[in-house]
C-alpha cells in the first residue's frame, strides 16, 4: 500500500447537501466520501447520472462548498477565502465535457488560452506560455491556431484548446468531467492518449469523471464507483472491472458489449437524494437481494436495515456491500470475487 504522504489530494468525511424547497429535506448529493489521489495518479469516478460524481468533482475544485468534511491539498487544508481559492486554482484545473459550451465563440484561441494567465497575473512571456500550452495539447504549430475561432476547429481540436487552457497555468491536478463524451469515437482515443502522455511528461494527477467504464479501463490507475452520494467500490482498475464485487458495479459492467451473459437491468431510477433509503442505499434496486442470493448468505435483513460505513480513502480494494463481504468470509466463495462478468472493457 502506498503511503498517505504521497497523496496530492485527500478528502475526509465529505458531505455536500443542498437545501430543499419549502421546508423539504435537504438533498444529500455527496453523503460521506473519503478519497485520496496520489501524485501522478489517474482515478476514474464512475456511476450513473445523479450519483453525485459532478458535485464531488466541483467540490474538490472549490466551486461548491462542502457541508461537512475536509479537503487537503499538498498536505494543507483547503481554505475557503477568495485569495486561497484563487491560489489553489492555479494548481487545480477543470476540463469540461462540452468544448463548444465552454469556449467563448467571440474569442480567438489565443485569448481563450491566455485568459487564465491574465486572471492570475502571469508575469512571464504570455505568448510563449500560450504557445507551449497549445503545443503540449497537440495543436502544432501553435501559432497557426492563435487567431482562429472555436467554430473554425473540429471537435477534437476544440477539446485540445480546453486542455491547453487548463495546462497554461502548469497545474498539478486536473479534474476532467466526461472529457470525451461529446467527441466522435475516432477522436476519443487521441484525447485519452493525450491525457496519459501529459501525466507521464508533467506528473499530473487527475480525477476523471465518467459513466463510461471503457474509458476508465483505458485511462485510470484506480476506479471509484459512486452511487447515491457514496463510493460503494474502489480499487485498482483491472481488479474492479474484471472481478466486480458490488452488485451495482456488476450491473454497470454487464451492459458492455464484451460482457458475457445477459445484461443486468436495474429496476427504477436511483432514489431521491433527499430521501435516502435505510440500510444499504442500493438495496431497493439490487438484483442480488431481489434474486434471493442475499437471503441465502443470511444478510437480507442487514441489506434493508443496516447502513454501511464510509469506505476509507486508501488505494486497496474495498467494497460497501453486506453480501460481498459475507461471501468473502465463506471458504467456498472463492476469496470474494464477484459473480459479475469478468470483462476487459474496450
Number of helices: 14
Order of helices and strands: EEEHEEHEHHHHEHEHEEHHHHHEH
Query: How does the overall form come out from the CA principal axes?
Result: globular
Name of the CATH homologous superfamily of the largest domain = P-loop containing nucleotide triphosphate hydrolases
How large is the share of residues in beta strands?
Answer: 15-25%
Under CATH, the topology of the largest domain is which?
A: Rossmann fold
- The parts where pLDDT drops under 50 for at least 5 residues are 1-5, 333-338
- Number of separate domains: 2
The chain-level mean pLDDT equals 91
Q: Ends: how far apart?
A: 28 Å
CATH class of the largest domain: Alpha Beta
- Give the total of beta strands: 11
The major pleated sheet works out as:
7 strands, mixed
Radius of gyration: 21 Å
Structural class: alpha/beta
Pfam families: ABC_tran, oligo_HPY
Keywords: ATP-binding, Nucleotide-binding, Transport
Family: Belongs to the ABC transporter superfamily.
Protein name: ABC transporter ATP-binding protein
Amino acid at each position: 500500500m502506498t503511503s498517505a504522504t504521497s497523496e496530492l489530494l485527500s478528502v475526509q468525511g465529505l458531505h455536500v447537501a443542498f437545501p430543499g424547497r419549502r421546508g423539504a429535506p435537504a438533498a444529500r448529493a455527496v453523503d460521506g466520501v473519503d478519497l485520496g489521489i496520489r501524485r501522478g495518479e489517474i482515478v476514474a469516478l464512475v456511476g450513473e447520472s445523479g450519483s453525485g460524481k459532478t458535485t464531488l468533482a466541483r467540490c474538490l475544485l472549490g466551486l461548491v462548498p462542502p457541508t461537512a468534511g475536509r479537503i487537503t491539498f499538498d498536505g494543507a487544508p483547503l481554505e475557503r477565502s477568495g485569495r486561497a481559492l484563487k491560489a489553489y486554482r492555479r494548481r487545480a484545473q477543470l476540463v469540461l465535457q462540452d468544448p463548444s459550451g465552454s469556449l467563448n465563440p467571440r474569442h480567438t484561441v489565443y485569448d481563450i488560452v491566455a485568459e487564465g494567465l491574465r486572471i492570475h497575473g502571469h508575469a512571464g512571456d504570455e505568448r510563449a506560455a500560450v504557445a507551449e500550452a497549445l503545443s503540449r495539447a497537440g495543436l502544432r504549430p501553435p501559432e497557426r491556431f492563435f487567431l482562429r475561432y472555436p467554430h473554425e476547429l473540429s471537435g477534437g481540436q476544440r477539446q485540445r484548446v480546453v486542455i491547453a487552457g487548463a495546462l497554461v497555468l502548469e497545474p498539478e491536478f486536473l479534474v476532467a468531467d466526461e472529457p470525451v463524451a461529446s467527441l466522435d469515437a475516432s477522436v476519443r482515443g487521441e484525447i485519452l492518449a493525450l491525457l496519459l502522455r501529459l501525466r507521464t511528461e508533467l506528473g499530473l494527477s487527475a480525477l476523471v469523471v465518467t459513466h463510461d467504464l471503457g474509458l476508465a479501463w483505458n485511462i485510470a490507475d484506480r476506479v471509484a464507483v459512486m452511487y447515491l452520494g457514496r463510493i460503494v467500490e474502489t480499487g485498482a482498475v483491472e481488479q474492479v472491472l474484471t472481478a466486480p464485487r458490488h452488485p451495482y458495479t456488476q450491473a454497470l459492467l454487464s451492459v458492455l458489449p464484451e460482457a458475457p451473459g445477459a445484461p443486468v437491468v436495474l429496476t427504477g431510477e436511483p432514489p431521491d437524494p433527499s430521501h435516502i433509503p435505510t440500510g444499504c442505499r442500493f438495496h431497493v434496486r439490487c438484483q442480488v437481494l431481489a434474486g434471493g442470493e442475499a437471503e441465502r448468505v443470511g444478510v437480507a435483513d442487514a441489506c434493508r436495515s443496516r447502513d454501511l460505513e464510509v469506505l476509507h480513502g486508501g488505494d486497496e480494494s474495498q467494497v460497501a456491500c453486506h453480501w460481498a463481504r459475507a461471501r468473502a468470509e465463506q471458504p467456498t466463495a472463492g476469496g470474494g470475487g464477484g459473480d459479475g462478468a469478468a470483462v476487459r472493457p474496450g
